[in-house]
Amino acid sequence: MRITNGMMARRSMKDIETAYKKLSDTSYSVSTGKKYENAYDDPVSANSLNRLKSDKKDIAKYYSNIDNATAAISDMETAVKDINSCMQKIMELCTNANNSSLSSSAKESLSQEIQQYKEQIITDLNYSSSGVYIFGGFNTKNKPVTADGGVYGYNGIDTLLMTDEETASAMSEKVSVNISKGMSMDIRISALEIMGTGENNMLNNIDALTNVIRADVFNNESYTAFNKVLEDNYDKVLINITKIGAAANRIDSVKTQLKSRESTLNDRISDVEDIDTEKAILNYKLAEQAYEASLSASVSAIQLSLLDFIE
Amino acid sequence: MSTFSGIEIVRKSLYVNQKAIDITGHNIANANTEGYTRQQIILEAVGDNSRTLFSSSGATNIGRGVQLAQIKQVRDDYYDSMYRKEMGIQAELSTESSGYIYINSLMRNGRDDSISNMLTDLFDSIENLAANTENMTIREEVKQNAILFTENLNITADALMQYKTELNDDVATLAYEINDKAYQLVELNKLICEFEVTGATANELRDQRNLIADDLSGLMSVTVNERDNGEFQVMSGGYCLVDHYTVHEIEVKNNLESDAVEGTFNQLYWKDTGTKVLLTGGQLKGMQDIRDGNSQDKMGIDYVISQLDDLAGSIVEQFNSINSEGYTLPYGSNLSVSGADFFNSENLKASNIRISDALNENASNIAASDVSLNDSAGTSNNRNLMKLVALRDATGIMYGDASIGNLEDHIESVFSKVTITTGYAKARASSQDEIADYISSQRDSVSGVSLTEETINLTTYQKSYEAAANVMQVIDEMLDTLINMI
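The joint structure predicted for all components is written out below.
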């Protein structure tokens, strides 16, 4: 085969271009840490990368939900724990009231104290976090629990007059968020669940207690009776604290799970996408050498001709 | 044989070697001329055909020197036709490859502002809203993400459409260029025929003609024949573009009623017969394929746009059907109503998808509640919004006859199809480059100028010339001797 100058020149040009392209690719890898620049440079990796990244997005989308749930739960926890301590105090005061030697003024101050704790409970039931009332079901704009004399309303309905249907509907107003695939969590508890419904609600019970103490008819028998209803109310609060605690645990475990899946995915993404730095630098050095070699070989190959040797 | 016949031999030799040196000079001068074919001088010995039985030299014939038989172009028709064939394929594939790469960049595939990331952001903000439906800031965020998503689709679809229009213009331009080259070929055919009537070969004109045929083969696939009688033909897809002295033009037509689908875009027809030009290769074919490709196997702009249209349509359909079931948040004097659209439901195309006027007016029109909120304070009712959240993981979504499946997966699959096609086109183009390069080298190996070879020739002819001159000197001295004897 004849080798002509045109062939030689084109060959050299092509070799230099190839070496230069390689140099540019490897330098991209070294400077960015990525294996390739465009998805179409390696469609197979790009596709598995897309899949991995969409799996990762699937996980990431739950984080904001989990944050929302965590915030809601910690708000609820604060309020319900406070209600819990108020109830404990009221029950203590109830025990203190069971003392026939108490003066009427002492009884009055006891009832006032109980009333103050009740007010505190109402405030807790109307707990709002950044303008959102958390115990009102779907109602988050207005205070869910209202007190008008001895009449307590929940979302505008007198709790004593609430029908079973109304109660059920109010209880079903749960705001839920997805915290993982196919796993949702209620992030609202209705005030009714904490204070109880109908005649047995906590607030009316406390009012009844103060009325009895004030009327000076509080005796052992009534103490036993009130102690029992208050215990029941207190149990409801405790159940809710347990529920909230369980929810918090569940969130923690889901979060840990998501984190570990995310980190596995990150590792796999990195495997596909990222370079091994030592290898990349080595490749870059090799490409650099190849480029230099192709330049110097081309220069000497093109420059020489027979003319140089004819005297 | 005359005493002076030796001088004649020397004269011929000097003449021929001088010519040979000229040809070598010509080759060297054109070593870098594009399309130049090296010329070779063919010499032949001149015999003594006088048939004199008893010549002065007895019964032996002495040759009469050398003469120039032919100045010949060294080329191989096989490589020429191979070259044109491979160049046609190479031009097609590299046009397609760069077209796909451009489509990839228009779609911002894999970038942060890609359509799929925008949809993810939209769904993320909807999930966030589900926990706080009364929060106007988050509602506004959902609205903004919806706007960003629609704008992103608009921009992408517009850019693809723009590219299609550019390609469409290029198709017409290339068709005119092909006609122009055909006319140039006809002019050259005339010149060559006129010149070669004398029996000489019009080497330089032939080089020009071959160069134009080469260019032509990159634009559309052509085959070139030169008949024994010197008639020169260029064929493409069974039709004759150049028939020696005649050009059969390609005509660009658009707005054809008979071709409603593709009618508004430039289509190529043979002007004489009115039949459509069938392209089998070349830049023109690459451009048409990218412009018109509308299936997964023949992917082009039409296919990508139709996929984006399906996506836009199905998203609008799904979002609207869910949003219109629910009740909006009352605001100002506007009551809580059902039936509000999320996206505008007119002209469902990726290029003009936008959010509904209602949503544009106020983010309260995201219908999160499943009951009217006019008489209820339950503003954080998110039962309807949870359906939008569930839409994210919904599968088996249909849009008309098109099976979409899951919305996010659908976008991913459109993008990965484009990526794979691009990668494949790029690989094919680069392997075709190798083939074209090989053929090109083969052709160059036959027809190209080698300076080393020319230098050797130069030295050879120079030495021959010197030697002939020496012979002349000897003859001169010989005659001198002869004359001085007297």
